């Protein structure tokens, strides 16, 4: 499997690795499936996580590698959660909703505290990560985003957008150019998917928390 971490080709001076390219291509497919509210988004995310784990584990980016472990675990959780069928719409896709203010508070608070904790750990043990705080931010942000997705919350798209803002420059800086390019595409898909879930949550007649975007 050493070929996964070998160079596939070079674009504009950026070296593209096979693992980086394959894992992120599958990740894009997973995001598109999530936009369509298809349960197959989870096995796709699981496979993407396994491949990207092999890539980041060799690059001293423990947060990004750990993020893939989280992707694998949460993908299994999300798959089981969506497969229960309790929130299924008539077309077989998952029903979506806005989070309550309490849930939003838990997500934001967990993201802040988690980033401080993981960033502090990476700072205390520099061998774990060359970019401790951005790496910690991405690691924790991914947990928050995927948990919100598993719960069918529209806010998961906002969480992914915030992860992308840091993920693009971090991946370019650490030699994962394909990941950087893909994160830019992620941004476009996130905005599109956010709009779709937003409209569906309103059309379903589900209550929108006071103060939520209209």
From TrEMBL:
Give a Gene Ontology cellular component term annotated to this protein: plasma membrane
Keyword Transmembrane in annotation:
yes
Subcellular location(s) of the protein: Cell membrane
Entry membrane topology? Multi-pass membrane protein
A Gene Ontology molecular function term for this protein is:
nicotinamide riboside transmembrane transporter activity
* InterPro entries hit by this protein: NMN_transpt_PnuC
Q: Which UniProt keywords apply?
A: Cell membrane, Membrane, Transmembrane, Transmembrane helix, Transport
Q: Which residues cross the membrane?
A: 16-35, 42-62, 68-85, 106-125, 137-163, 175-194
The family database entries (PANTHER family) matched by this protein are listed as: NICOTINAMIDE RIBOSIDE TRANSPORTER PNUC
Q: Identify its protein family.
A: Belongs to the nicotinamide ribonucleoside (NR) uptake permease (TC 4.B.1) family.
Domain of life from the UniProt record: Bacteria
Q: What is this protein called?
A: Nicotinamide mononucleotide transporter
Primary location class: membrane
Tell me what organism the protein belongs to.
Streptomyces himalayensis subsp. himalayensis
Q: Does the keyword Membrane apply?
A: yes
């Amino acid at each position: 499997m050493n070929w996964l971490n070998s160079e596939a080709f070079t674009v504009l001076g950026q070296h593209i690795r096979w693992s980086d390219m394959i894992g992120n291509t599958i990740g894009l497919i997973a995001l598109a499936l999530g936009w369509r509210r298809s349960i197959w988004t989870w096995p796709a995310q699981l496979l993407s996580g396994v491949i990207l784990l092999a890539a980041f584990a060799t690059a001293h980016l423990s947060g990004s590698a750990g993020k893939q472990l989280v992707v694998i675990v949460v993908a299994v959780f999300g798959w089981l959660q969506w497969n229960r069928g309790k929130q299924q719409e008539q077309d077989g896709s998952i029903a979506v909703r806005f989070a309550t203010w309490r849930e939003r508070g838990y997500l934001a608070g967990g993201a802040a505290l988690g980033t401080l904790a993981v960033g502090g750990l990476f700072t205390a043990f520099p061998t774990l990560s060359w970019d401790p705080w951005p790496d910690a931010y991405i690691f924790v942000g991914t947990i928050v985003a995927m948990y919100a997705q598993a719960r069918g919350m529209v806010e998961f798209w906002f969480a992914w957008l915030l992860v992308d803002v840091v993920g693009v420059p971090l991946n370019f800086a650490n030699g994962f150019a394909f990941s950087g390019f893909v994160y830019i595409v992620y941004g476009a898909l996130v905005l599109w998917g956010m709009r779709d879930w937003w409209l569906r949550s309103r059309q379903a007649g589900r209550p929108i928390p006071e103060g939520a975007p209209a």
